[in-house]
Predict the structure.
Amino acid sequence: MSIVMISAECAPIAKAGGLGDFVQGLSHDLIARGETLEVLLPYYDTLPLDRIAGLRVVHPDLRVPFHDHWLTCRVLAGTVDGIDCGFIDPQSEQRFFQRGRIYGETDDPERFAVFACAVLEFILQSGRQPDILHCHDWQTGLIPVLLRERYRARGFPDSRVCYTLHNVGYQGVVDVSILRQVGLDPARLMLPERLLHAGDGRMANLMRGGIVDADVVNTVSPRYAWEIQNTEQGMGLESLLKTHASKFGGVLNGIDESVWDPEIDPLIPAHFGPDRLPRKAANRQALRVRLGLQETEKPILAVVSRLDHQKGVTLILHGIRYALAQGAQVALLGAALDPEIDGQFRRLQQETATNPDCRLELTYDERLAHLIYAGADLILIPSLYEPCGLAQMIAMKYGVVPIVRRVGGLADTVFDANYSTRPFAVRNGYVFDEPTPDGLESAMSRAIDLWRRFPEYFSQLRLNGMRADHSWTRSGQLYRDLYVHLGTCKKSS
Ligand code: ADP
């Protein structure tokens, strides 16, 4: 099969969160299965060019229809850790992808609309006939729409679209003028069963467009698939997803074990695994030195997260204070786009500046993230909603016991040490339901208490998490099956 992944992120060169890990991990798995695969990304000015092998221009002047004129784009290609990547570089005064970051610009809708148009034009003009276009999140929601409205007739009638929803909290609700800019007819599309955003007749919802026009739609855990069809977590998409239920499902993400494996991770000082767990202590010590935490007999509670409302920031702030009061150390690594949330964490950082048991690193730092997973004992993930969550799976692989709220993919992967109905051998963490200080404390106190009073049971929990299979092997096969199924539909239609 020939597969084109179209995404705003791909780790390690363009990552803001789990989407970057997903595209890297699934791509590696599919390539290992012998599939032909290419990832198409914007040519961000933040790309670390030294990590892209053989970078070259493959199309110097791709002409893309946009906003009543032709926009010229360069297309570059190169290989990143064995994955062939193509990069779209619009030549425009607006410097769409030269902003020093991936997201968070006021013209994000226009930036990713240009990307969507350029991707299809590139595939068309280069004569590719991909079997599968795999699109991700709102940034690529226009691609299935453009394909149906325009491109299928022009060039690649047989390509099928798989559309993955990584987070319906961001749907790409944009001014209707974006549709005109990409040459689509608002009169045809601004209908409740197409792109019309519920409750506002002037706004188009790009994720709705992707859901309606893709051949198959999925999200990143079975539990989140249920939640977004049946609860307010669907954020207005519930009935649309139910309408399209026959082509919608949930596939749990995996973690890329060429990147996240404490037995071989080049970014940590001491390699370890379930058969040599005591070696984790050297990483704990290195983490304390790196962060300036005192060397002491206390468990280290980690937070590695985007600091976003979704992640339960109020609960994270409460959890840090509670952990310190319970005699734990805290290592937080997180970055906030929202200035108000950033301010809350900066105040706590100042408040705890002289506390030798607490460090808050308010930045994005891939290397430090690896060291924190390697050195920590507990990780706190009190999300209000969580489509899948990779942090808990990575943490478990590194022998860290997760404390999570029972939502989305967290509920699918973390099984409570005391209350799960599953066998003891697969229980791997602590789970709470209510997004309140009481709910959080009930789980945190049980976890810290076990660490202190029953270290051998605590080690057993660590080992249960480390031995669980969170690799891409199973889910990669499921995606491959999905693609094959789409190919079969193509032949019979
Ligand atoms: P989301 O996609 O919602 O951000 P996930 O748990 O699915 O959450 O994935 C988060 C990924 O981003 C993990 O690989 C995590 O280690 C990483 N990450 C989050 N915040 C940071 C940070 N500040 N620095 C480095 N890595 C981070």
Residues 17-18, 21, 304-306, 333-335, 364-366, 369, 388-391, 394 surround adenosine-5'-diphosphate (CB under 6 Å). The radius of gyration is 23 Å. The mean pLDDT is 96. The chain is about 40% helix and 20% strand.
